[in-house]
Queue: 2 jobs
Job 1
Amino acid sequence: MGNWLASHWLSVLFLVSWLGLNMFLFVYAFLNYEQSDKYYYTRQILGTALAFARASAFCLNFNSMMILIPVCRNLLSFLRGTCSFCNRSLRKPLDHNLLFHKLVAYMICIFTAIHVIAHLFNFERYSRSQQAMDGSLAFVLSNLSRHEKEKDSWLNPIHSPNTTVMHATFTSVAGLTGVIATTALVLMVTSAMEFIRRNYFELFWYTHHLFIVYIICLGIHGLGGIVRRQTEESMDESHPHNCSKSFLEWDKYEWSCRRPHFVGHPPESWKWILAPIAVYIFERTLRFYRSRQKVVITKAVMHPSKVLELQMCKRGFSMEVGQYIFVNCPSISFLEWHPFTLTSAPEEEFFSIHIRAAGDWTENLIRTFEQRPSPMPRIAVDGPFGTVSEDVFQYEVAVLIGAGIGVTPFASILKSIWYKFQRADHKLKTQKAGHAALNFDKATDVLTGLKQKTSFGRPMWDNEFSRIAAAHPKSVVGVFLCGPRTLAKSLRKCCQRYSSLDPRKVQFYFNKETF
């Protein structure tokens, strides 16, 4: 546990700060709308549901501001490069960008549910107070719009007892944009479930771009000004503490309190999301520019098990080990971009990827190259982008573990190590590298091209970690995995179990690839 906290303390601090900010914003907004005199009359109609709706709206704005930042891959790569000389714990939060993206999405779902439920109560209470006909304060406030001279100072958005809640919802800016944004959110979240994402990636890819609809609706959601407050001038003239009990005598006599005047709450969502949208637009513009640069396919090789290797060249392309790129083939789909780990080494004159058939897009791409077309189909490339594997050379001992196609991130690393040894690179810290290859029927490894081969099959992890700990009693060991969650869970426990309590002795640091 101590080892885990030592390497993840900044990630934990960031997560706790984010949760704390959500709690603070919710409580702050809730108390403001529950206690502020400006909303006294609004609360007479809506009750506590007003505070729940507005507090959840504050948190929705905050998390909608945060949701795009973890997927700005160029920004993250820049930060990773900036922190390349920092302590490894300072770079850890960057490795969990997609996890944080998911957590923010879950938080948005929670506060959306609170916001929608609260406003369902609000609209129902608006409707009831309009139909009350009982002379209550809520009824009087709901009928302020019927006074012609005060038609711009209404409090209840339902202006007629004959107007249904459904009609008010779909004919108001706030109601209609709320319905559309919620529908888009539900579609995005459900299509992002792991089963759909793994087996129907195209569905996930297209549906996830509904975030554009969500952001637009969020930005204009508050234009209707449904949530209203008493104006400052009206507060000075007729404070609710002095006038709320004499509401039947408003404007009746010269000495009576004046009717309160109300104004819509100004839209605020755009203020929260403007900066991250600007960053994201710059991100997408940069990615679009790079995707338009010419890519030359120098070699296409079909390996066993329907694995396609593409070797390519691109002007100005520069990579590091463990990085990945996004690939698009316009002849298959103009809009779809898929991530692939680079399997070449930085020392090579080309960059390469290995593609396994795992869906309609990859199957179509492999089928296209199997036909050996001339000329070859155009390929667009965006990237490269950084991953946790870039830190592999920061460790004296590295253990690389890949399952299935998960061995591809380490092909680049193993090749680069071989080149560095050949060139006697004295800056290389790594002295030991362990890797498992699933192909042992050829003279060289199918991915790395190296002659060195290791054992086939699933290792006994306790034996492996015990052996490494005994062989390197005072080393910092980096364990890198690209594989399933169940394996990650086992390896993380082994790293904790075999790390010494003494920080001067062997320490295992677990790192998992995520895309």
Job 2
Amino acid sequence: MPRGRRGSRVSVLEAGGEEEAPPARSQCPQQTQAAEEQILLRGIFEIGRGSCDVVLSERTLSWRPIQPERPAGDVECDLLCKEEIIELKDIFSVKLKRRCSVTQRRSGTLLGITLFICLKKEQNKLKDSTLDLINLSEDYCDIWFRQFKEILAGFSNRPKSLKILLNPQSHKKEAVQVYYEKVEPLLKLAGIKTDITITEYKWHALSLLQECELQGFDGVVCVGGDGSASEVAHGLLLRAQKSAGMETDHILTPARAQLPLGFIPAGSTNILAHSLYGIPHVVTATLHIIMGHIQPVDVCTFSTRGKLLRFGFTAMFGFGGRTLALAEKHRWMSPNQRRDFAVIKALAKLKPENCTISFLPANSSQDVLEKQVQGPPKSGESKSISLRPEPNSTDVLLVRESSQSLLLPLDSSDQWQMIQGQFFNVSIMAIPCLCSAAPAGLAPNTRLNNGSMALIIARNTTRPEFIKHLKRYASVKNQFSFPFVETYTVEEVKVHPRNNPNGHNQEEGGPHETASESSFPWNVDGDLMEVATEVHVRLHPRLINLYGGNLEEVNDSNVTCNCL
């Protein structure tokens, strides 16, 4: 049967069709699985530079080059006839391939079908690629095209319409360019409808999410930095509380966000993108959204005196908060200059925070809670206190510090620990917080949805030692292997400052401050939050879905297509 380079003679086997089986070959597990699946279509296309026998089954598309018959056991023939396989779940679009000329008024001459595929090319990095199935038959290509479209329509988790919130001020004001040059073409290729709003001021996205209609959207996408993503997440969660009829000022068990959130990294640090995708790569983030890869993520509520302040993923008090406060006063600088300036100035003015930290250990047990203080604390050191229920009482806690005891009200049967003293920095992280400055993460032992937070405390120490601790984040060494650094896995944290914002102990009667000057700066997801009193941080497992997927499972295929 003669076969030309294009327009070759073809045969189509509908489901259940029969054809003489080729000689048996050793097959990998993926090939064996493909062989066991029901065949939907089978025929001949030109792929690369040669004709191939192409089989479309329920989950895979496979093809094998057609070669002249050779003696059995010919090694060269076996290599040339190696079967290639791609999984249908990795295809995100299909188009008819046509060649147009100036004289042709209509769509042009049909050449075949083009498949657009999501491939994992490097560690955690996704890339869009194409596979051309060349055949000049209009009727034949139409059958395959409609079958591919039907298969793609069956992926119900993939978004068909998205609300885009774009922050034009992110980083070097590149967000608009990034979206229109790299993101929008892929979304159009996948057939996803978009409605774009460019934010004009801080908290604009938050106000939009409280007012705009989201009924027809499958998800919300934020193009910007970590602060923009956190603002949109906060807005989606507030909207969910109102939809559930909950009082937003006092939330114990929040309702989950109704729509998933996608994040296109266009900021300076892109901690959320690093933690979600393993890499701050725009195309990778876009393909995760297109493919509908969903990752449930834990979220924190930040409240004071029982009133909700905001939702968020991470927080820093002390050095981290004061550094951000300094940076916010110099917004006229470039992001990198502003960051470096703020860090240097904060280190120069470094002072410990005198506060009380109470926390509820995750999966608390009596062994974890009975941490004893080894000897009396030295001057400037913090004091660790173990809280346990007083026997025969449900109303008080017995606080033990060395040989002293103190009764405190017991709000619940859960067991809390307390630490008092002076601290340079307090970090509370619900996600790993990976970034270029901390490749292993600010909280490397935390996961996106393990139901706990990392509490990292840096006690009062010398400035050089604290700087060594900060530098360790950028190295492969353990950043926590310092005697003044403590880490805990917790579910709730309460931070109660005991000094005023200028470092004067309140018990010593420091000078009176204005309302703005009497607030302590917190760094919450890169946004400045100023609070004058105790802040209560509570973790809520899997409260929002983010487009991201499991980094170990996304596009995990052992077979690569040499022609892609």
